[in-house]
Write a structure and sequence with these properties.
Length: 48
């Protein structure tokens, strides 16, 4: 089992923070919240 945390600074003064565990997003925080609708979670090719 593995886990990783990351922070991404995106356009529009947006920050995306997430926790991944075993390839799954288990926590997601988007600041400002109004930008949450613009974040898309995608599965890598070859994963069901």
């Amino acid at each position: 089992m593995w886990a990783d945390d990351f922070r991404l600074h995106a356009p529009g003064n947006t920050v995306v923070e997430a926790r991944l565990q075993n390839g799954q997003v288990t926590q997601l925080l988007v600041t400002p919240e109004s930008r949450r609708k613009d974040v898309r979670l995608m599965k890598p090719k070859g994963h069901q």
